[in-house]
């Protein structure tokens, strides 16, 4: 099977469906709120490349590119590959399975030709060691079987975009190390959306949850087109310890274009206190589920009732602060009593101060 519903345990295999799809399947298995959909496994991508002899074509173009780091050379190479990919149809068995899964999704939701998001889910994406967050593409409000198939091919093309190939060359990674799975998921009708980190992205403080959000779909936040509202929440008591109003002048009501935010809503917070608390609770659950700080995308679906309108769109490991070594607050070699007295007096114990700090190296 090339297509897998999020409820299928096989959809939790990152090697098969990529980090994005596996993360969604993990959340479904944990009973967390996710918009319904399915994944197209990376096996379909391999089948597509093999059927059209595309691996040899890509190798030929990359050989001509050599070790060039000139952006113009990447643009030229990407155009050559894209021209060939656009004439290569999906294999018949892959296309039929996607059509069948899309029809089933429409039936389950009760909406003919339901609008979906088609999202790249590369097998190497979102790993802690080599984060590809933001390098691949997502399209929303895709309607109909033919349009879904066309956007699956766009996901495949995105592996060989100039931006991605330049990024891979910088990391000394071959494009063939990336295999593209695809997520097809009901488009969320977001009244507000954004990102959440289960630590402070500015300080690395793991006792906090940081939330950034704006009106409409999350495209404006992720794309940096607005200054979002920012909230910092204490993990223990779930109190909101900081509020920073944003500058929310535009929003995406649909995926095609941004529209101005009405003046009366520009300065209003896009999330209520109840929304913020509910998000922080979900963030804590996801951090416990994965055993590490998480970077989470979310939306509040205006088609759902208050209290059940928070939808999780994506979850991946946080990659900046999670890689910074943390010094333990208690030095076992110094003894418990030494640590207690040091904590009270503020004196260092066992050669190090209580707590942890981030130190910069001299260059």
TrEMBL record:
Q: What is this protein called?
A: Phosphoenolpyruvate synthase
Pfam families recorded:
PPDK_N
Database matches in PANTHER family: PHOSPHOENOLPYRUVATE SYNTHASE
Q: Which GO terms describe its biological process?
A: gluconeogenesis
Signal peptide limits = none
Listed cofactors: Mg(2+)
Task: State the InterPro entries in the record.
Answer: ATP_grasp_subdomain_1 (IPR013815), PEP_synth (IPR006319), PPDK_AMP/ATP-bd (IPR002192)
Q: Which reaction does it catalyse?
A: pyruvate + ATP + H2O = phosphoenolpyruvate + AMP + phosphate + 2 H(+)
One GO MF term: ATP binding
Enzyme Commission number(s) of this protein = 2.7.9.2
**Which UniProt keywords are listed?**
ATP-binding, Kinase, Magnesium, Metal-binding, Nucleotide-binding, Transferase
What task does this protein carry out?
Answer: Catalyzes the phosphorylation of pyruvate to phosphoenolpyruvate.
Which residue range or ranges hold the Pyruvate phosphate dikinase AMP/ATP-binding domain?
15-327
- Top-level enzyme category: transferase
> What superkingdom does the record give?
Bacteria
Its UniProt pathway annotation is: Carbohydrate biosynthesis; gluconeogenesis
Q: Which family does it belong to?
A: Belongs to the PEP-utilizing enzyme family.
């Amino acid at each position: 099977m090339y297509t897998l519903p999020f409820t299928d345990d096989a959809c939790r295999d990152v090697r098969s469906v990529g980090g994005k799809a596996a993360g969604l399947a993990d959340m479904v298995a944990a009973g967390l709120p996710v918009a319904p959909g399915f994944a197209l496994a990376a096996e379909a991508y391999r089948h597509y490349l093999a059927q059209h002899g595309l691996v040899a074509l890509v190798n030929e173009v990359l050989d001509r590119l050599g070790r060039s780091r000139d952006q113009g050379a990447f643009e030229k190479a990407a155009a050559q590959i894209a021209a060939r990919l656009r004439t290569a149809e999906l294999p018949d068995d892959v296309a039929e399975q996607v059509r069948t899964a899309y029809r089933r999704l429409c039936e389950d939701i009760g909406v003919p030709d339901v609008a979906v998001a088609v999202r790249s889910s590369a097998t190497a994406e979102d790993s802690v060691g080599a984060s590809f967050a933001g390098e691949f593409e997502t399209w929303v409000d895709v309607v109909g079987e033919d349009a879904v198939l066309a956007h699956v091919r766009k996901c495949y093309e995105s592996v060989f975009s100039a931006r991605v190939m330049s990024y891979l060359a910088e990391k000394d990674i071959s494009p063939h190390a990336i295999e593209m799975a695809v997520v097809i998921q009901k488009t969320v009708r977001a009244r507000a959306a954004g990102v959440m980190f289960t630590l402070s992205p500015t300080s690395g403080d793991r006792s906090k949850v940081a939330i950034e959000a704006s009106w409409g779909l999350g495209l404006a936040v992720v794309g940096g087109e607005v200054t979002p509202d920012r909230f910092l929440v204490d993990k223990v008591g779930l109190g909101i310890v900081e509020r920073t109003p944003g500058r929310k002048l535009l929003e995406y009501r649909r995926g095609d274009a941004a529209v101005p935010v009405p003046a009366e809503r520009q300065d209003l917070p896009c999330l209520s206190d109840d929304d913020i608390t509910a998000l922080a609770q979900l963030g804590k659950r996801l951090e416990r589920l994965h055993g590490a700080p998480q970077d989470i995308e979310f939306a509040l679906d205006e088609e759902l009732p208050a209290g059940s309108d928070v939808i999780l769109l994506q979850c991946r490991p946080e990659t900046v602060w999670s890689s910074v070594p943390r010094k333990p607050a208690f030095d076992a070699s110094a003894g418990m009593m030494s640590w207690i007295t040091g904590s009270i007096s503020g004196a260092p114990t066992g050669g190090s101060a209580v707590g942890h700090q981030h130190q910069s190296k001299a260059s």
